[in-house]
Design a protein that fits this description.
Distance between the termini: 20 Å
Order of helices and strands: HHEHEHHEEE
Number of domains: 2
Strand content: 5-15%
Oligomer: single chain
CATH class of the largest domain: Alpha Beta
Helix content: 25-40%
Strand order of the largest sheet: 1-4-3-5-2
Shape: globular
Structural class: alpha/beta
Number of helices: 5
CATH topology of the largest domain: Lysozyme-like
Number of strands: 5
Radius of gyration: 19 Å
Amino acid sequence: MDILLFANQLEKNSVKEIVETIYKQVENGAIPLANIIRANKRIQNMHTKYSIIQKPIIFTDKRESLTKKYIKTHYGLDVDNINIIPKTIVVHWTAMMDFNKSHQRLNPELLFSDRKDIAKASALNVSAHYLIDRKGNIYQLMPDNIMARHVIGLNYSSIGIENVGGEANKKRI
């Protein structure tokens, strides 16, 4: 394991406590320091081994206008642009096992008619900043300082990452 990801189940723990716990485990030998050094080297090399591939979704004035309306309706803000200051990252998985089909769902500006569950909130299609295929390739769909519609309540302050998954996430690569 190279990177630890802590979700809201650890919200009562401070980052300082978590770091101190790991540090103590390295000190007493439960976690070998060599493992952390190797993991850190792999993390440093990720940007060259797994470079981010640009695969933008359709983003015309229409999507920008729909996004401004979404911001007004859901956040009460009358904005000149759809820029955000990300404060969190939200990780999702797609309902499809196929990268191309997942991208095709995120690409149009208007929400698909089969999304009746969220259609009342806006005609703006769902989107994400990044889409990661089953092999770990990372595709950037839109700039991470532009609002994407990917999660209720946090769109205006978060980066959305979609992992290609699928129902019950059973298919193996």
